[in-house]
Amino acid sequence: GGTIGILGGGQLGRMMAMSAVQLGYRCIAYAPDGDTVAADVCDDVFTNRWDDTAALAAFAAKCDVVTWEFENVPIATAVAMPGGRIFPHPRALETAQDRLNEKRFVEGLGGKPAAYARVDSPGELMAAVDRLGAPGILKTRRDGYDGKGQWRIGSSRDADALRLPDAPLIYEGFVEFGAEFSVILVRGQDGEIRFWDSTRNVHEDGILSASLWPAGELVDAQVVEARRLAGEVADALKYVGVLTCEFFATHEGPIFNEMAPRVHNSGHWTIEGAATSQFENHIRAVAGLPLGDTATTAAGVEMRNILGGEIEGAHAFLADADSHLHDYGKREVREGRKMGHLTRLTRA
Ligand code: ATP
Ligand code: MG
Ligand code: MG
């Protein structure tokens, strides 16, 4: 037993807490904003601000170990947790929260990101488009998710017409990929690493729509190299817990897109489709327990996100005996919002 503190209160925290409860832990969440769906499975929720030092101290005092489910937890918040009792180490947040840092870090380990340029002014955007060419994607360096904070640039004329947001930016050359995939691994406190099978991930409008396994020849051929990089990232950060790296499979090999220092939407299929889910292994790692087997137990897996109003009537999907529904219990339905997911297994 013991108490696990989770920074953030969304569906990732909810599924993490469900695994923790199964293993005999109690969970409490620290979640200043939003629809805190993790509250359904947590004993307590702190809704104080991220910078409320008294509340953070009170939260930490209640926890044996702390982790996060949200990658934009302020560094100062993570650092306010007792050292050696927060996993992964906050340095992982620091690396991943800024797309420019993240790319430089991965290049330092021999990884290949898309061509990129730092952009802090309209002039720098024009120079970046001149140098790297178009099409490309302009992204905010921080705080983006589900494709938010991104602008497709088709030509220098598009770049010229764009009113730049008041935030640090990065311009990336558009990668002509054959497929997208993710490497999800868990690293234990003793440094042991285990990988789940890589799914092919399909995005629509910048939001993950489906994760499919088998992932196909193109992805399978690039997983070894992508795993080598992801493993080096994890080792370099002395990472503890589940780490995700997203890649584009191209004719020149795997191109690193971004990392998420946490459990990941493209790993939801592991709840039913793997011997041990990403959520359970994340909890095992942060709690210092032995890691579970990550092997895929089905012959095929298909995870589909349920967005917005599609959640209404989702029980109808269960007419298919091989489908499993996860409804996150969000109170507010918004268009494009992740409300739940469906995992369909092909039996082994
Ligand atoms: P997430 O919800 O995964 O954190 P995000 O908002 O951080 O998403 P990215 O992963 O950077 O966004 O981009 C979202 C999607 O947009 C990618 O999965 C990919 O489909 C497309 N995309 C992003 N960058 C590029 C690129 N340089 N070339 C081609 N496609 C891209
Ligand atoms: Mg991202
Ligand atoms: Mg992404």
Automatic annotation (TrEMBL):
It catalyses: 5-amino-1-(5-phospho-beta-D-ribosyl)imidazole + hydrogencarbonate + ATP = 5-carboxyamino-1-(5-phospho-D-ribosyl)imidazole + ADP + phosphate + 2 H(+). Residues 103-287 form the ATP-grasp domain. The keyword rRNA-binding does not apply. Pathway: Purine metabolism; IMP biosynthesis via de novo pathway; 5-amino-1-(5-phospho-D-ribosyl)imidazole-4-carboxylate from 5-amino-1-(5-phospho-D-ribosyl)imidazole (N5-CAIR route): step 1/2. ATP binds at residues 99, 139, 144-150, 172-175, 180, 203, 257-258. Keywords: ATP-binding, Ligase, Nucleotide-binding, Purine biosynthesis. GO terms for molecular function: 5-(carboxyamino)imidazole ribonucleotide synthase activity. Its EC number is 6.3.4.18. It holds the Pfam family PurK_C. The keyword Calcium does not apply. Homodimer. Catalyzes the ATP-dependent conversion of 5-aminoimidazole ribonucleotide (AIR) and HCO(3)(-) to N5-carboxyaminoimidazole ribonucleotide (N5-CAIR). Catalyzes the ATP-dependent conversion of 5-aminoimidazole ribonucleotide (AIR) and HCO(3)- to N5-carboxyaminoimidazole ribonucleotide (N5-CAIR). Belongs to the PurK/PurT family. This is N5-carboxyaminoimidazole ribonucleotide synthase. It comes from Qipengyuania profundimaris.
